[in-house]
Fold this sequence. Notes:
The protein contains five helices and 21 strands. It is mainly beta. The strands form two sheets. The protein has an 18-stranded antiparallel barrel. β15 (280-294) and β16 (299-314) form a beta hairpin. The longest helix has 8 residues, at 8-15. The chain is globular and about 75 Å long. It starts with 7 loop residues before the first helix and ends with a strand.
Amino acid sequence: MKTGPLPTxxxxxxxxxxxxxxxxxRAGLEEFSTFSCEEQERDDESLLDHVLTxxxxxxxxxxxxxxxxxxxxxxxxxxxxxxNATDLKLSTSLGGRVAFGFAIRQNESDxxxxxxxxxxxxxxxxxxxxxxxxxxxxDKASQDMAVMWDFGADTSAFQLHLVxxxxxxxxxxxxxxxxxxxxxxxxxxxxxxxxxxEMTIRRSDVRLNVGGRWLTPGERRVIISxxxxxxxxxxxxxxxxxxxxxxxxxxxxxxxASTVNHQAKSTDHPQYVPEPDxxxxxxxxxxxxxxxRGLSRRWSAEARWLYMERTQTHAPPVDPPRFxxxxxxxxxxxxxxxxxxxxxxxxxxxxxxxxxxxxxxAQYSYGTRAEDRGYVGVIMRFGMVSLQAIEGIELDNEPYxxxxxxxxGFVQIQARF
Length: 417
């Protein structure tokens, strides 16, 4: 990676495409409204599945430096649910150094679900790159927009992305009458905003990425009947997400430490009946460390430890009032690189899960347990397309019927154009 100063013209051109690179700083209301900790219990090996669905870190630089690229991570969660996370980014010139961008961001899993298509414009200046983004949607009231300001580029030592999102801009905000959401009128009484930032520092000995987003508290009136306002409901939602990752190299080992904190709170209650308020608070956070070392020209090894807590608390009339889960995962794997375009992965994983629930147990929780898994994977390169396929084999007895043995498949693909 180059960490020295870049020519002004080149830096401006790279900065024009920064928004397409700094995707994690652009969020949406759906990443908080659909967020659930309890839902992950439908998959008794949810954490193991999410870890194996990750795109290889070795592909990151190519993704960040590409203006036209797609990547997709998919995998098996349950017998009826499939994990899908797909990102597409395109960029072209609007004349001079001004850039036009298009992106698709999809994530469908047991943690949350969203599907965004984004159009953006970026105008490089000597003081950074201001930009504008718009998300169309079938529900007019659910369309989002954002204003941004970027500094640095994907190859510079310092990179900063600032964004101020305006959620549901056509819902009782920029028009005289409220647009329907999902076929029902839900005008905002207090409109939500979503500021966020992401900063990346790249040096020869360390890389740091830190960021956060805040969905400000929003309140809506759900109109059940236009003739009887006593039937109307009031709903609220707010949320935050913050993350930090540090990478360095010491003693011949590549070290990584990271943490993520995701939380949201929503309420739903009749307009004239303040209690019960139907509160639903959920928080998921984890810390993770890994160590990677090359053993020879062809062999390398990696060890990983991850500690995660999940909490979801309800107020009446919803039961159970509280759900808590703690995951403690360890992972070890080796990689055999047969040639630059072909490598094999071999690994073992173990997750000790502690579940605590008050009163009624969640109907789909498998309770306190330990999950063990072995896996083998292949990483291939075809021109500008990278492909990884993983087959996971469960090593413990399952509480449900399986045929011969319980296996799960995962695939990741990345291509640039």
